[in-house]
Amino acid sequence: MGSSEQKALRTVVWLLLGAVALAVGVAMAFEVRDALERERAFRAAPTCASVPVEPSGCLWEQEFTVRKADLNRGKRNDPPEAELLLPSGKPWEVSFRNTDPVVSEMKPDDKVVGLVWHGQVVEVRDADGRRQQTSHGPVGWPEDRLGGALACVSFGLSGLVGGLWQLLRRGDRRHAAAATSVRWHGAGMAVLAILVLWAQAANDWPMWALPAIWGPLALLILASMVAFALAGLRGELDDDTPSTVRTRPAAGGSDSG
What we know:
alpha+beta, 2 domains, 6-stranded antiparallel beta sheet, membrane, transmembrane, transmembrane helix
């Protein structure tokens, strides 16, 4: 495969990745509102007066005994999970989004309290009072959806713009350099969104901290993107452009007499 075919293939891959990322980002953006409403409903839910017979919007604390816990480390697509036993001996499978602070310390025969909401265990509390949301827990989902939307939309848009730009101006090295700078700056904005999301989750910042921190930094990256794209169009990013050596003519001509 020649170099031109390889460049065309890379451009197509960027276009596909950009389209998929943009679609995922838009879907996540639409989920933010539903996630917010679900979290608000959870925080406003009353305590159940008695054990709910069927899934209910009230909150019920149920005691469990840990049968086993598996952190699934080394298994990329398997979340941490635990098998909890009701007093009757009936097992209840629970999965988690991460390992800390509760599931990583779970051992067989430990006693934990599960918070049941709409028929799902949404939170687990251990004997030391530490709490952890399960995969069904509504707390934190709005921030995750917003952070994912920022990352995917910025990556997707830049990937599509850069890919289409290079495809339409195929063979032009200056436009190719400008398009490449657009794509990689978009990837930088996506990485920045993920880092800000991690910082927000680790420090328990409110959701508005995500756009408040990411926005100004993304504007700086966007300004850098524009500067690099213009430099590419001027040929300043094209290393293959041969340089010319200018010589000044000697004063008085070249006569030697």
